[in-house]
Design goal:
Helix content is 72%, strand content 6%. The protein has 24 helices and five strands. Strands 1-2-3-5-4 form a five-stranded mixed sheet, covered by helices on one side. Helix 7 packs antiparallel against helix 8 and helix 14 runs antiparallel to helix 15.
Length: 632
Amino acid sequence: MNIKGLLLGALLLAGCLSVHAYQDHRHAEVDSAEQVLQSGRPLSDKERMTCYYILVRGYLRKDTEKHDRYCRQLLELSGKAGALNMRESALYHLGLQHYGREEYDKAERYFLWALAVTDSMRSDKRYTESDIDDNFSQLYGALGNLYNIQDKALLAIDYYQKALPIFQRHGWLESQTILHHNVAELWLSMDNTEKALQEYQLAIETGMATGDSLMVALPRKGLVKIYLGEGDYEKIRGTLLPAYEYYHAHQDEDPDDYAEVLASMTKMYLMDGHEDLGKAKAYVREALSRDNGELMAETRCDIYAAATMVAIREGHWPQALEYALQSVHENDDEATYSDVGCYELLAVIYMNLGDKPKARLYISKMRDMMARFSTRHYQSGLSQMEVIYETEKKENTIRQLETERRWFLWGGILVALLLLLTALIFFLLWRSNRLSKESAVFKARLDGEVAERSRIARDLHDGLGGMLSLLRLKVDGEVSKTEALQLLDATHRELRLVAHNLMPEQLLTGGLSSALSDFAQSVPNARFHHFGCDRRLPRDIEVVLYRCAYELVNNALKHARATEIDIQLVQDTDKVTLTVCDDGCGIDDARLPVSDGIGLRNIRERISHYGGVLDILANEGKGSEINVTLPL
């Protein structure tokens, strides 16, 4: 994760909003609001909510207990009064509070809840477009920062990009510059230099339009990283020198940025064909002098890596080793992708010092780190893309409905009364055609999803599974490798389970009933029963019901802590019903709308395209029964 990008994300969150931008919260304002609440005189709901709002903002990051109490009082009163904007503010600040505690799941829940409230403001004439844009921009920034700090780069980029049209609509150039810079940093963290380059250039373009030299220097500093990787001296020089001039003149405003630029200057003067060792040494000495123990870890690693390169160029191998060891994280679990290059430097240093075992150790670390990051980015990317797809599908539906509402409103004004009947018929025909197209698009997406899952399952089983089997045969003859063999066996079983869950072969060949029976056998204490006619359903219906069953069983095991699970499939001539019962902790009816998490939302959206119905029968502590019914 790029920590500097995260801090700039916080600037994006705080600096671009007109209504919710933070100000200095003087104690006089907070004390005055509390005195009003404690005065005993009758207060209107609006007056009381205003006091709560002042106190919520005033106690943020100052008094956690009071901030939480006033947030919840504001949330309760705004719900009763139907004050959507105040309700959004309460939810947003609750999210910020959990974000500060590193309770990211809870923060995400409150931010998404606040988004839903803001979305409902569109149809409420009490709120202006500016009110709604203020809320959306701060929530998109908050979610972008939230996913950024969790290394969910694709989700962070998605939410930052959602804020861009709002910034463009209002002409917020500084916010656009910071947004493009943040997105560029995220693409660069995923080694996508092409997209990072585009975003850095957009940041420079909008930064120049602001007339603020910081807004120009900021993306230039990041762009240099790409040019250093390409080895293009002229581009590096033309980009880096103006950035250096700015940060040298403002070196005490942000010590990390200045130290980072000094490290880049050092690397530029070490480039082949343009080497100036004297200047490189001068810049790296100044960079090292900036390390007063308060620099961020990533910045320290960068300047000590530059110092290592200078020492290597001079042939001072003991000094190079000292610097190189400070350029990597001491704990391998905290290592980032930048450590890979430092591991390579350490391997070179130990080879020249004659310590071959240490050299081999860091070569091994370098390979392990590259493999670990590659696997983590791949798996994280898949899960993030699924969330983005589901979110965009929902938002597209909302946008289409909103567009349709506006079109009908203006059409009703412009169309003459004598043509009303004709216009209504045309509208119905158009609507029918649109729904048909939507159905076709959804089916095409589902077919693509099925094909992709099948491909991934096949690759996992036939590719990696075959490799693991071959590896086992090679190790099998060594008695001392017993534990390794057991680990390989467990890995192979897990791989087969993953392939089965992505797209079970039995679902494609034997049908839904057979696939659910196999699935139940793979889950401890789960039973499957089939009632009614036994005939194959359309493939898309079978896939939807299987995914629903998989999601519901997983929910029962993870969240309800169930020990007994019954899966039933009742197949009639005109409908099919999937039922999942468990003996878990159940769900409190009062919290059911709030606790409808991503899994249940996904199920509702999947079956809604087929006219399906989801029924939940659950009581806290008494288990639950969930029915999914699709018409045939």
